[in-house]
Amino acid sequence: MTPDEIFAVVRRNLLEVLPDLEEAQVSLEHSMRELGANSIDRMDVVMAVQDDLGVRVPASALTQANDLRSLVAVLGEYV
Amino acid sequence: MNAAAPTGVRRPVAITGAAVLGPLGERLEDFTAALLAGRSAVSLTATGPPGPAAEPPPLAALRDFTVAGWAERHLADLPETAGLLRRVVGRAALPAQTGACVALRAVLDAGLPLGPGGEAWGERTALIVAGGGLALAHQARNVLGHHLSPGRVRPSYALTHLDVDVVGAASEVCGVRGEGWAVGGASASGTAALIQGARAVAAGWVERALVVAPVAELSPAETEAFRRSGAMADESWRDEPTRMCRPFDRDRQGFVRGEGAAAVLLELPDAARSRGVEVLAEVAGAGQRLDARRGTEPDRGGQVAAMRAALDSAGLAPGDVDYVNAHGTGSVVGDAVEAAALLEVFGAASPPLVNSTKPLTGHCLTAAGLVEAVAVVGQLRSGACHPSPNVDHPMEPALSLVGPGAVHSRPRTAVSNSFAFGGVNTSVVLRLPHAAPVPDLTPDKP
């Protein structure tokens, strides 16, 4: 799975959780927090993405991710 | 009643915002007009919940509600608040969504500012949410979904199954930072929460109280349990659903559920005056009594004691009451017991007018008490009591029931009752402020 494909899964779930968000606003440079996701939103996105990808990433690895690019990279190590 | 003193509110508390969210209206004026016209929102649910029941139950349903739609109607001038509302409760369960919306409406109607720089009032304001076990349909969906595919449950369900999610949501959108919690008293929750709010303000613990009763959900399991218990109207008048809820009628057959939310903003009358806002009505007295008996059966003694405690704390005699908004669910046993309790408290000589709002709004369960308190405020302010459209054969001729048309009797002082499973009895005294002018009684039609 390419980083682009993983990013597409992340973006789809992020838009599902934050319906006010425009697709074009979601770029790799943003953090979910910057895009308006609160702690509970971020948990839902990260869990739904893992469900969709069929992976389980340890929480310790996820906390390293501070923007969508690094989140996609962390996920990529487990796909 | 020498035992009444501890439950009272001691001094009148002003209601400066009174909001509803339901099928009969989203503003106090619309809601009151619908009530006075005797309009009922009850229908047979077209798509009933899946379950063993062959026929869908009647329901006064909140149709087509969305947070975004509500925000467009109410927050067109406040885009920041609208955005905040959508972010905070856009995908919350229905109680948190409706609670946040109706709370905002009450704050706006009370003339309090929202948004950056506007939250100073929130520091000394309490938030009291009516109800317990509010998001039962949301809970059922998650439990059933988890059963079907474990591992798909959203982490946020850890928050959204809790009643306190309504506290968090309403406090965030309104900027309330004083104390806050949820008051659970089943069908008496709305009135119990109103009493707690009024007490907190009267005692000076807080400057203001925002009391919020969100829409209470039932899952198909609770709905079916109510139906099987015989408490729910189910069989007769199915071809005329608005006739199915028949409080105090000989042929009553149980309650009909309604989806409605309400909120009020409470403060001391002096505080309201110093802000230059109108006092819509006052909470003048309150009484709460337990039957000290577990179960579903009502108890006349507890109901009488609650009403007398409310009158005593308001310093009023039964003869001072012009109007009673009964709990009146349409329950076979419940209405008979309440009718007897009303006659015991008020006598048969010159009893106050009595109606029940539930044939029109449905029984809003944990929100009922606050929805009906707002209904009382609307009626007092319009100088009329709304119709009881379904009393074809009054079960108790000594009760002075409002009939099929509104009665323009200029009520100034009202009692509102809410009783609940668990032996919980609550009554409040609501009245127009002393200085309020006599309402204009010119009816629309002669």
3D structure, described in words:
- The complex is a heterodimer of chains A (79) and B (446).
- Chain A is mainly α and 79 residues long.
- Chain A has 4 helices and no strands.
- The longest helix of chain A has 15 residues, at 3-17.
- Chain B has one domain (5-431): Thiolase/Chalcone synthase (Peroxisomal Thiolase, Chain A, domain 1).
- Chain B has helices at 28-36, 67-74, 79-89, 94-109, 136-148, 157-160, 164-174, 189-202, 220-229, 269-275, 300-314, 332-346, 358-361, 368-382; strands at 13-21, 42-44, 58-60, 125-130, 180-183, 208-213, 257-258, 261-267, 281-290, 323-325, 353-355, 400-401, 413-420, 424-431.
- In chain B, the strands form 2 sheets. Chain B has an 11-stranded mixed β-sheet, sandwiched between helices. A 3-stranded mixed β-sheet of chain B has the order 2-3-7.
- In chain B, a hairpin with a 3-residue loop joins strand 13 and strand 14 (424-431).
- The radius of gyration of chain B is 20 Å and the shape is globular.
- Classes of the chains: A mainly alpha (79), B alpha/beta (446).
- The A-B interface holds A 17-20, 36, 38, 40-41, 43-44, 47-48, 51 and B 83, 86-87, 90-91, 151-152, 154-156, 159.
- Chain B: Belongs to the thiolase-like superfamily. Beta-ketoacyl-ACP synthases family.
- Chain B: This is Polyketide beta-ketoacyl:ACP synthase.
- Chain B: Residues 10-432 form the Ketosynthase family 3 (KS3) domain.
- Chain B: Pfam families: ketoacyl-synt, Ketoacyl-synt_C.
Number of domain modules of chain A: 1
| Helical stretch tally of chain A | 4
CATH architecture classification of chain B: 3-Layer(aba) Sandwich
Strand order of the largest sheet of chain B: 5-4-6-8-1-9-14-13-10-11-12
Extended strand count of chain A? 0
Assembly level: heterodimer
- Largest contact between chains: A-B, 13 and 11 residues
Which fold name corresponds to the CATH topology of chain A? Non-ribosomal Peptide Synthetase Peptidyl Carrier Protein, Chain A
Beta content of chain A comes to: under 5%
* Level-1 CATH class name of chain B: Alpha Beta
CATH superfamily of chain B: Thiolase/Chalcone synthase
Instruction: State the end-to-end distance of chain A.
Output: 7 Å
Runs of chain B in which pLDDT lies below 50 for 5 or more consecutive residues are 1-6
- CATH C-level class of chain A is Mainly Alpha
Helix content of chain A: 55-70%
- The tally of strands of chain B reads 14
Uncertain runs of chain A are: none
Query: What percent of the residues of chain B sit in helical stretches (DSSP H or I)?
Result: 25-40%
